[in-house]
């Protein structure tokens, strides 16, 4: 047990360095000791299709071979991941997945893809329908559609703290000593707030107003928080906003439907694919430049029907996932694909994934070398 | 699966040959009795009789009938079971007594199937599909399924406005001189906490007036076990949150004066169901709190008259109100609950005229008007309404050799809203022709040919459903050509006969209305689907008297459906079989009738199918078969009272299967029924 705890501790420390590695790929810690951050691959989360009864699955893309395997979880565990996984992180030696319809958080060993623990919220008194997971400082935080954010102890896999936020919190981010949860509200009754939770007290310190229907939050190298507000899918377009003045105001950055931030270079990568647009826009924004005038840089990257964008925190590689397009329409019930690009837009790989590839993240590790 | 099909096929051939060999080849069946068709329900005028009486074999289109008698004999347990025994049918069944059941005929989709209850259409403007779980077999004297326009041309225009029509009909009460009333009752109990009493009371009020009152109540827990296979993990689960309560009350009256050419009938109907919805099976999450309450009431009137100048008239009218309430509870909702309502109102009237100048020739015309409204919190707040004007013109030519009909339907749909934009209007001409050839001396064969061009309007959900609906939808068109042959044993004998019906068809559905993603979160209804259909249907019925105390009857049906998605030639899923449509469907029953006990063994089997139009491993639904056994006996007591005791076991082999993906069907179940007729 002791060795196991130590192992878990080491893994989490390694992960902290991964998560906290904000400015550069390598950093030195003491004389002759060097920490290198490396990415070995990517994880694509396939949400499946609830209506057609297609379960979710994990796809793993290997940087070494540039090949992708889908279905490792069910192959290794002899059971399904569950219906509609919506968020995942690679944290230490584990993968945490929030599976909304199955009402579970699956904690998976990275080494063999076997389940270490399945947290079920079916009979939980407070929490239901996990939506997203983020990791920080030895803890994993999960947002729940019941309107809560909960803290999972990564050594015991138990929920030790719960805080109430707004309606339907979605994809969260961590900046400084705070975790931010966007409250998207209900269908046709969208919310427009972000709950700012102090990680030390685990209390909501502030409820910040943003634009309509915030669903994704990301933070930059300077600890500023960006919110993707989806609008009303009608006359209010989906756009990225930056929270200013400690939450007292917000400014529009760009119209977009999905985005990610590469912290080391402080670059925002986004896709704007609203319905009816003649073509989708793929662009990046240098967040170090003057805040008043936002200049977007078009990128020559493209998929047919974008489902997710993610940027590798170390290599700055970009993953774009896509639905398959059949007859001009995205097919939500058939397997999609993904493309990987270098930061300059050179395509590295194109690979098949599962049905509904709505999220991607990376296997990033800190490596210790003694010089 | 293949083994089962073979077994069924071998069994089928064996019994058929046996029946052929052993019989005296005499023909007569209750299907052929003149007053068995539903049309005769209200057919009392003199002119109409010659114009309307038709039966299965003389019909110009593929028609299948199941009477109350054959329901009993074939061991049919519910309406869905009756439909599964027919050819060309795909019953989408969400499982259990409370699970929704919709009928698609010849792969055209459930929205192309009209349901006519006692002569007038049952409508659902919201989804366009009728949930058949609300109908019980006890309220039906006969059900028939017609594809295309049959040889009866004296009909409301709405009754011919669909590609396929399911008629559910009750018979006008019949009395004799000694008895001016009929009283029957039934109690039923079975697995999964099922209990259902019902009654039917018919009374002759005067020589011209009669009435019928009937009521039924059904309750069931429906918490059946099922085996859940999760990759390699196999667990025993239970279908929780599946309780059902349903009640129905109906009052009919009939006015038929003696020596009069006119008749009037009417119905007041009320139905209510309160049920829990277990939802799809989701791994690791067996909890559902969803509930549905559906209430429907309607009043309908039917008046018929005729004049000596070869003219007949019928007027039908119906006022319909229904309400569907959905309730769900969960911490994911703002106030921990969610409530949706759908309220539909329908006012309908139809006038039809029949003119028969010659014995061989008749013409008819009908004009229908309907006004439909829907109020719901789940559709955009526009309060949609629709005016439907349908006019039909039909001709029929009938000799000893041929019966031929030709129909032209003009449909005009005018959409309106109380506020906001209405969806597109539509008007269209729909032709159909059909004929059957028969030889006056060689009455053992029939050849029928038919063609019908029809469409269905977008439903209010298609048009206005929040985020999903589109107002610029065009109607969804369907066309079909049918060629059929019937061969019958040439003599008339109820104990020994054999008949064979084979129909082959081809057709297509164009501008199929399907939901397509508009953005990640936003879907849209569009006219993109294209389906090509080919099919063959075969039915064989036999009756053999082996001994004066032993009669064997068999019914077999086989359907082949090639229904493929032709939407996108470049797609790798081009020409894949459309969702939920098996290529092969087999059903059969063998009934043994003896003076001591009657037994029916029956089964249905289906080949593999897919829950999506893309035929992938992930969405494959395995083939299945299901067998059942029924036994019954009628006891005649004093004072003309009869008592009937009946036992059914369904899914005898406890087969675990699904018809709709993630909605497991019940395993082995029993049912015990006691009927009293006085």
Rg of chain B, nearest Å: 25 Å
Shape of chain B: globular
Please outline the major beta sheet of chain B. Answer: 22 strands, antiparallel, barrel
Q: Uncertain spans of chain A, ≥5 residues at pLDDT below 50?
A: 1-27
Q: What percent of residues of chain A adopt helix (DSSP H or I)?
A: under 10%
Mean of residue pLDDT values of chain A: 90
Alpha-beta classification of chain A? mainly beta
Q: How many β strands of chain B by DSSP? A: 35
Supply the number of helical segments of chain B: 5
Notes on the structure:
The complex is a heterodimer of chains A (371) and B (678). With 371 residues, chain A is mainly β. Chain A is built from 2 helices and 31 strands. Chain A has helices at residues 2-20, 72-77; strands at 26-28, 33-46, 57-62, 67-70, 85-91, 94-99, 104-109, 115-120, 130-136, 139-144, 148-153, 158-164, 173-175, 178-186, 189-198, 203-209, 214-219, 225-229, 239-244, 249-255, 258-262, 267-272, 281-286, 296-298, 306-311, 318-322, 324-326, 329-331, 335-341, 347-355, 357-370. In chain A, the strands form 8 sheets. In chain A, strands 1, 2, 3, 4 and 31 form a 5-stranded antiparallel beta sheet that branches. In chain A, a hairpin with a 5-residue loop joins strand 17 and strand 18 (225-229). Chain B contains 5 helices and 35 strands. In chain B, the strands form 6 sheets. Chain B has a 22-stranded antiparallel beta barrel. In chain B, strands 1-6-7-4-5 form a 5-stranded mixed beta sheet. Chain B is globular. At the A-B interface, strand 28 of A face loops of B.
Key words describing this protein structure:
heterodimer; A: 371 residues; mainly beta; 4-stranded antiparallel sheet; 7% helix; globular; B: 678 residues; 5-stranded mixed sheet; 5 helices; 35 strands; 54% strand; disordered N terminus
What does this entry show, briefly?
Chain A is mainly beta. Chain A contains two helices and 31 strands. Chain A starts with a helix and ends with a strand.
């Amino acid at each position: 047990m002791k060795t196991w705890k130590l192992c878990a501790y080491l893994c989490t420390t390694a992960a902290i360095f991964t998560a906290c590695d904000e400015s550069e790929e390598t950093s030195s810690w003491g004389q002759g000791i060097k920490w290198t951050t490396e990415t070995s691959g990517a994880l694509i989360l396939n949400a499946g299709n609830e209506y057609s009864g297609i379960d979710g699955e994990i796809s793993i893309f290997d940087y070494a071979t540039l090949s992708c395997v889908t279905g490792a979880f069910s192959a290794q565990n002899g059971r399904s991941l569950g219906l509609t996984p919506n968020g995942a992180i690679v944290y230490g030696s584990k993968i945490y997945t929030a599976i909304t319809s199955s009402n579970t958080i699956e904690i998976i060993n990275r080494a063999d893809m076997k389940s270490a623990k399945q947290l079920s919220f079916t009979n939980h008194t407070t929490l239901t329908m996990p939506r997203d997971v983020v990791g920080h400082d030895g803890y994993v935080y999960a947002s729940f559609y019941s309107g809560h954010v909960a803290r999972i102890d990564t050594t015991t896999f138990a929920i030790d703290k719960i805080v109430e936020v707004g309606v339907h919190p979605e994809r969260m981010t961590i900046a400084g000593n705070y975790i931010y949860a966007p409250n998207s509200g209900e269908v046709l009754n969208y919310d427009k707030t972000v709950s700012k939770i102090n990680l030390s007290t685990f209390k909501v310190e502030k409820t910040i107003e943003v634009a309509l229907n915030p669903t994704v939050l990301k933070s930059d190298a300077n600890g500023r928080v960006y919110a993707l507000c989806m609008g009303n899918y009608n006359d209010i377009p989906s756009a990225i906003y930056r929270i200013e003045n400690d939450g007292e105001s917000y400014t529009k950055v760009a119209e977009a439907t999905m985005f990610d931030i590469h912290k080391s270079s402080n670059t925002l990568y986004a896709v704007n694919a609203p319905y009816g647009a003649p073509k989708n826009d793929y662009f990046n924004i240098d967040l170090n430049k003057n805040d008043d005038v936002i200049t977007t840089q078009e990128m020559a990257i493209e998929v047919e029907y974008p489902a997710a964008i993610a940027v590798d925190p170390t290599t700055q590689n970009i993953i774009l996932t896509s639905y398959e397009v059949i007859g001009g329409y995205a097919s939500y019930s058939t397997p999609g694909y993904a493309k990987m690009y270098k930061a300059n837009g050179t395509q590295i790989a194109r690979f098949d994934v599962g049905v509904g590839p709505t999220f991607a993240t990376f296997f990033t590790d800190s490596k210790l070398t003694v010089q | 699966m293949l083994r089962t099909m073979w077994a069924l096929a071998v069994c089928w051939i064996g019994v058929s040959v046996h029946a052929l060999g052993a019989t005296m080849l005499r023909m007569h069946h209750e299907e052929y009795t003149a007053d068995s068709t539903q049309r005769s329900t209200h057919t009392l005028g003199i002119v109409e009789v010659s114009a309307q009486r038709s039966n299965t074999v003389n019909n110009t289109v593929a028609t299948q009938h199941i009477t109350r008698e054959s329901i009993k004999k074939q061991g049919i347990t519910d309406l869905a079971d009756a439909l599964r025994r027919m050819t060309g049918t795909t019953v989408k069944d969400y499982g259990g007594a409370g699970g929704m059941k919709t009928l698609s005929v010849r792969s055209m989709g459930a929205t192309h199937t009209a349901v006519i209850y006692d002569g007038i259409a049952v409508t659902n403007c919201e989804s366009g599909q009728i949930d058949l779980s609300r109908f019980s077999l006890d309220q039906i004297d006969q059900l028939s399924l017609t594809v295309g326009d049959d040889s009866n041309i004296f009909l409301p225009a709405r009754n011919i406005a669909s590609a396929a029509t399911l008629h559910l009909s009750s018979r006008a009460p019949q009395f004799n001189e000694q008895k001016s009333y009929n009283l029957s009752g039934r109690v039923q109990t079975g697995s999964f906490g099922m209990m259902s009493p019902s009654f039917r009371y018919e009374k002759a009020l005067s020589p011209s007036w009669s009435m019928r009152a009937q009521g039924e109540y059904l309750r069931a827990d429906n918490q059946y076990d099922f085996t859940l296979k999760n990759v390699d993990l196999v667990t025993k689960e239970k279908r929780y949150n599946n309780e059902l309560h349903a009640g129905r009350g109906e009052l009919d009256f009939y006015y038929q004066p003696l020596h009069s050419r006119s008749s009037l009938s009417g119905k007041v109907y009320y139905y209510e169901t309160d049920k829990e919805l277990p939802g799809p099976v989701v791994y690791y999450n067996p909890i559902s709190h969803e509930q549905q309450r559906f209430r429907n009431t309607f009043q309908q009137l039917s008046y018929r008259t005729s004049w000596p100048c070869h003219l007949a008239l019928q007027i039908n009218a119906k006022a319909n109100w229904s309400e569907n309430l959905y309730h769900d509870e969960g911490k994911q909702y703002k106030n921990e609950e969610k409530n949706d309502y759908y309220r539909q109102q329908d006012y309908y009237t139809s006038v039809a005229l029949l003119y028969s100048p010659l014995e061989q020739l008749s013409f008819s015309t009908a004009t229908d008007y309907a006004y439909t409204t829907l109020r719901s919190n789940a559709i955009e707040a526009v309060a949609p309404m629709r005016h439907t004007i349908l006019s039909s013109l039909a001709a029929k030519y009938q000799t000893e050799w041929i019966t031929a009909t030709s129909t032209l339907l003009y449909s005009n749909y005018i959409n309106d809203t109380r506020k906001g934009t209405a969806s597109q209007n539509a008007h269209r001409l729909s032709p159909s022709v059909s004929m059957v050839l028969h030889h006056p001396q060689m009455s053992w064969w029939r050849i029928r040919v038919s063609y019908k061009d029809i469409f269905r309007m977008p439903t209010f959900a298609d048009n206005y459903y929040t985020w999903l609906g589109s107002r610029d939808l065009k109607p969804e068109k369907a066309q079909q050509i049918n060629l059929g042959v019937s061969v019958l044993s040439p003599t008339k004998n109820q104990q020994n006969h054999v008949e064979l019906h084979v129909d082959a068809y081809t057709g297509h559905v164009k501008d199929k209305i399907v939901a397509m993603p508009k953005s990640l979160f936003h879907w849209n209804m569009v006219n993109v689907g294209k389906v090509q259909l080919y099919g063959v249907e075969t039915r064989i019925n036999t009756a053999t008297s082996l001994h004066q105390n032993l009669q064997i009857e068999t019914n077999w049906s086989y359907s082949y459906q090639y229904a493929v998605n032709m939407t996108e030639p470049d797609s790798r899923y081009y020409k894949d079989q459309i969702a939920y449509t098996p290529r092969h469907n087999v059903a059969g029953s063998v009934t043994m009738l003896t003076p001591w006990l009657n037994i029916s063994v029956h089964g249905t089997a289906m080949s593999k199918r897919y829950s999506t139009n893309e035929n992938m491993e992930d969405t494959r639904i395995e083939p299945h078969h299901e067998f059942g056994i029924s036994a019954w006996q009628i006891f005649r007591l004093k004072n003309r009272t009869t008592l009937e005791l009946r036992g059914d076991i369904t899914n005898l082999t406890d087969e675990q299967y699904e018809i709709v993906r993630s909605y497991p069907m019940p395993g082995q179940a029993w049912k015990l029924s006691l009927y009293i007729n006085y």
